[in-house]
Amino acid sequence: MRLVRTFLLAFILILCCSCAGKSGDEPRYVYVSESDIADGRLARIDGGHDEDCLSRRMPDAEFVTFKNASEFIVALNVGKCDAGIADRKDAEILLAVCDELRLLNPDTAETDDFYIIVHKRKLPGGSADSTGQGLFEKTMYRIERSLLSDSYWLLICRGLLNTVIIFVFGLLLSLILAVSMVYLEYQPRMRKVFDLLHYIVKTIRDLPSIVLIFFFYYVVFASVPVSGIIVCIISLGVYFTKAFYDIFTVHLSLIDPRQHQAAHMLGLTGWKKYRLIILPQAVKPMLPLLSATSKSLLRSTSYAGYIAQLDLIKVTEIIRNQTYEVLVPLLLVSIIFLLLSWAIREGIFKLYSIVFAND
């Protein structure tokens, strides 16, 4: 039933985005001259035309600076900016790589000191569908361009695999460290070791997880040829140890001490006592918190892209930079994360029912 709700949510998301895209094809404004954008939001590329000169010519305009041509084009495609300003060299590149862009005044551009670039839908007649394609055909074209062409789907599969690897092994490392800390806590001879480990993980937990990833990647393993995937696994595994440790200790402490006494009276000691008496009572209330913490770890895998690792979010950025398509890859990644979150929750509850099926 939860899977059905997940797919229903994904369908509603697709429908809303499709409707938004359809209404966006009809521009509110049509530009015919420079005066139409004199007070608009204009994009420019960092290091391009001097902004002071532009401000003197169009004092009422708001200029937004982008780091590269890809972000410039995306801003015009999705409507974040009304138009763009570029010099001759940059304009030639922009018009060559994106056939959706046009010059506002091509007749006077050669004699001007900069080019004004707009999306073709902003020009008179630009909103008309000259190809006769409907919404379905346009949607399929966008899917083909951003997922199927140039084997982008293989890139998404690689990103998904890396995301799953980071999550699974990071989760295992967190659970192993957390269980080890719980064990050390009940060993009087290891109390000093436990106190030291507890202080370390408690301090680490107060940091943003991305800071810890940077610390391991650029400091701890700076001179060691270790894969960034392994660095992410170690970083996230250590970072979430405290969260899992707290879940375990809190729920174990809630077990009535008389349960331990009853287990001893039945001759159950050590692992048998926990396996048959304590854990079935302690684990079940943990499940929602274990699920939520595991989902948080899954979401934190998106930081792998900051150290140049090919995860799902990094793949989305690559596809956007190469195709200038934003909606389709983001929507696909959103659906994948929804399904992974659903799988985590159902997997945890299913594992509990299998391990403690006869209890």
Any overview of this molecule?
- Helix content is 64%, strand content 6%.
- The protein has 14 helices and five strands.
- The chain has helices spanning 2-24, 51-57, 69-78, 88-97, 135-148, 152-185, 191-205, 209-220, 228-239, 241-253, 257-265, 270-300, 312-323, 327-355, and strands at 41-45, 62-66, 83-86, 101-103, 115-119.
- A five-stranded mixed beta sheet has the order 2-1-3-5-4.
- The longest helix has 34 residues, at 152-185.
- The two termini are 26 Å apart.
Key attributes of the depicted protein:
359 residues, alpha/beta, 5-stranded mixed β-sheet, 14 helices, 5 strands, elongated
Shape: elongated
User: Structural class given helices, strands, pairing?
Assistant: alpha/beta
Roughly how many Å is the radius of gyration? 28 Å
Strand line-up in the sheet with most strands: 2-1-3-5-4
Total beta strand runs? 5
Ends apart, CA distance between termini: 26 Å
Helix content, binned percent? 55-70%
User: What's the order of the H and E elements?
Assistant: HEHEHEHEEHHHHHHHHHH
* Uncertain regions spanning at least 5 consecutive residues: 18-27, 128-132
What's the rounded overall pLDDT mean?
A: 80
Fraction in beta strands: 5-15%
